[in-house]
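Record type: monomer structure entry
Structure origin: computed from sequence
Chain ID: A
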Amino acid sequence: MNLTYLCVLCIIVHTAPPEIIVEPGHTTVSIDDQLRLACEVIGVPEPSVTWAKDDINLEFDQRVRVLQNNTLIISKVERTDVGHYKCIASNYLGRVSSEAMVNVNAPPVIVSASRDITVKTGATVELQCLVEGYPKPIVTWFKDGRSATPGPRTSFHNERTTLRIEHVKDGDKGMFTCLAQNLVGSAESNIEIKVRGYGPRRPKLLIKPFDMEAPQRTSIEVPCKADGDPTPNITWTKDGVDLVQDQNHKINSIGSLRLFNISFADSGVYECTAKNIHGQESARGTVAVLGDVLEQSPGDRFVNLAFHEASLEVDRAVNATINSLFGSDDKIMNPEKLMRMSRFPDVVARDVAKSADIFERTLANVRKHVQAGLKVNLTENFSYRDLLSVEQLDLIANLSGCLKYQTKPNCSDMCFHTKYRTIDGTCNNLQNPLWGSSHTQFRRILKPIYENGFNTPIGWTKGMKYYGFEKPGARLVSTSIIRTNEITSDEEITHMVMQWGQFLDHDLDHAIPSTTKESWEGLDCKKTCAYSFPCFPMDVPPNDDRIKNRRCMDFIRSSSICGTDTTSVFFDKLQPREQINQLTAFIDGSQIYGFTNDRSFILREVQTGFGLMRGGISSNFGKEMLPIAGADEVDCRRDLTESDTGCYLAGDIRANEQVGLLAMHTIWIREHNRIARELRTINPHWEGDVLFHEARKIVGAELQHITFKHWLPYVLGPKGMDMLGQYQGYDPTLNPSISNVFATAALRFGHSIINPVLTRLDDNFTTIPQGDLSLGKAFFTPWRLSDEGGTDPLMRGFFAVPAKRKMPKQNLNDQLTDHLFTSAHAVSLDLAAMNIQRSRDHGIPGYTEWRTVCNMSKAESFDDLKNEISDDEVRNKLKELYGHPGNIDVWVGGILEDQVAGGKVGPLFQCLLIEQFKNLRNGDRFWYENPSTFSPAKLTQIKQASLARVLCDNGDNITLMSRDVFKLPELQSPKLLPCKSIPSIDLRLWFECNGDCPGENASKEMEELRSKDALAKVMNMTEGKLEGLRSVVDGLKLDIKRLRREIRHLTKASNRGCYDDTVKRRRREGRTWVSKKCTKCECRNSQILCKIKSNPTTEYTMCDTSILYYKSLYSSIGNNRNQLFIDNIAPYIIFTNHNVYLYYNGIDTVGKGELTK
């Protein structure tokens, strides 16, 4: 049998539709970077892959290509590459796609900006500044270098891209700058506004020459200023002959004539003429040059002249300083210049200091003119009262502005002053309203010690001996006994103890430096080693191991306050020189909110009405940064070779001093805004000012609680906290002002615990790619905050890394004494030497005097110090430097003491800190533990506050935290815990009932009771209770506002009918029905109108449809022209979104008014 075999080959083919297994992800890239978008697909048959951008297929070239694995590559990314990218995979079985959004980080570009414009007074002008960029740029406006702020005539629109000024005035003219900034870069545009009057007009002299007398060899100014359109040309004649300008005769920019080094030939009649095409106007004055024979008293002759000269001298020196600091184009800043810029006072502080300077210089000029040859005999015991009357001194004081800062503030607004602090600290103590306020003098515990008993510091006269020995130079003391290059880590506290101390210090004190770096003799303090006010340079010892090419380090004295030093003669007393504290004394967040109303205003976001502080660009995590400061508000100068990021604006002018401090400022502005936003959610009826002050009040309480309960125990130790004691209540007899020794010496203990490196840690607590920062690179580099990881790496470094431990021979690290700033062509500054020199400048008594104050043992020999300074070698070095214990500077003695048990200061600084902090607590009417400040329930919540919680809430993305940020994590269990485990303040306790608190579930009985109570208030009004009536009306207005919000939320009407919330359905137009609330309702014009069906028993009833009925309010109140009649008020009032309709006796045309409140 033949068998035939059939072999069949069967092939089974598996098919599958496309599937994307690796999808492209949303990403953000920078310009010139490479973009990679993955798109891995599977499917049978193999899918084909295409790429599209914004639904348009991509065209490929050398820059845009697709790899074999379907990954899209775009090289050298451009701004136009932003868009939606789609990967599309398809075969015959199907088609799938996946989309990714690509953003391109691009610096701002101003695509359209207004041009320079000339407007008439009274007109409205809009300045446009349209910008592009990613992340979305923040726009900030400046006028003449200062932040532009909204006001009655000024407003911002379209996310600040439009600045509108209404009813333009002459003062609005100037240079406006639009600054657009994001994390990638910035752009700016300048627009000049010129303001002219009401059209062409002839000249008018606004200031005219007048007759004057002046002695030979002096300089005077003959005034002349004119207005007109076109701008008039001003010319001068002398005795009818055209005046030719030369080195002794000059016409300034406004038209005044300046005569220099005058002689008898300059006597004559001077005529000023202002002329344009529409006419001219002239005025004349006589100048008499005085000889040897004078009949008037010297006081009468020279008050105005001496003042004028003093003003010119002070202004010249101040302007020279400003121009030197801020007017140069130097890209590389030397450290001295950077330090002076960071300390240079703002406009208000300069005004305070200049007043004293001008007053003092005027008096000096009077003496100079007298000594120049007048017939008045002078002795060494010179007395201005021999020359000047009380009236003349009064004139000088007023001219200089000195009296302006001696006036008592008005504290009559008790509605405000019983609830909130003022920004400048005034009116805290109602009996002594200037105590603790800004721009007042430091408090003295001991009388100052000046070399001449009046104003020259110890050491001013070289060679003078004290206790038989000369005072050693500050730099010599620093290099011999203070500095160290060895570091020992503390075994308990973190570096956050140091950073909180600096942040706190900038809330409490800032001595205003001199407004000029030049002496009145014209010496530049940077270039001279002579002692000539305000120059007080620090001598460099001959064998200094660092400074070889200079004999001294420059140092400028602090300004004095009016009424002390030379100016004290006006106040009929002789008072030694006292320095000015620019800040408020209280722990009130002045480093956040500012210390004057003007500074506070530019820091606030007032236009939104939400009570917020102004923010700037956003971090990579979307958190707000500080706003950018204007050129005239600058606290530091960035190094343009490193970055063009501007300096940041904060309440204290030193915020940019070092990047860790700047990060702390950023954290706390976010904390204020977080609280303000939450309070607005809880109390939507609160206005912007209420939200601001309530949030500020909570922030101030947090600062006080953290300082006293969490920070001070590590500083003072357990015994010190016992000495501080518990809060016993407000004491109005205590002056909380900052003591001079506290600001100048005691609080500067923190310099001894500063690490030379700022550690920066990522979320895994490992060093960030940019690395840690040496102190030299941390100063004046605000750009590092935005460009190198934000706030979190710095904050983690502060609470995870130990502070430096102060040892007997390890006091200040040499980064602070030899490398405080790094710069290629300059000498670094010495912080220790500056501390010593500042205490001498301020007339602070020596170390041994303060030991007596603090009940420490008397020290007549250096061995008497062994209980506090136990190291024999240190005491021997003190003896070698000072010769006698009485010579030791207070900061040096205090910093060298052994630390008290459990604390970080010695017994002297412990005593001085306790004295000040006790006064700050007990002398503050708004102290957070004062029962009148917070209710018990609110106080309980305030006590939940901690710096750990604040960092969790306001860091960029902090998720793990130690419970106590001042204590090393390894000493805690657990070391770190999730932020959700850190207690927080429950702000719901700040809910304000607004007088009614109806609530959705309120009972009818309670509603009826509240209704009757409200009407009873009205019915019981008498003619003398109009004020009470106003409060009731105000309450009704708030009811209207609340009801309006509820109606807007609840009523969902359309043109086809009405939405009835009681039954949760829509009713047709024209439909009528009977409500369960004893009313008949109708849907008319998309509104539900209800009328009372029967006489209700209550005075008014609230229907479910949120329409309020007022029934039978009948009374006549008052009988004068200000009376308010409430007589047979309409059966009901209807509230719509925009209007109030009053229905009276069934007629709906009685009244209609705009709902404006």
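Annotation 1: Residues 590-810+851-943 form a domain with the Myeloperoxidase, subunit C fold (CATH 1.10.640.10).
Annotation 2: The first strand starts at residue 16 and ends at 22.
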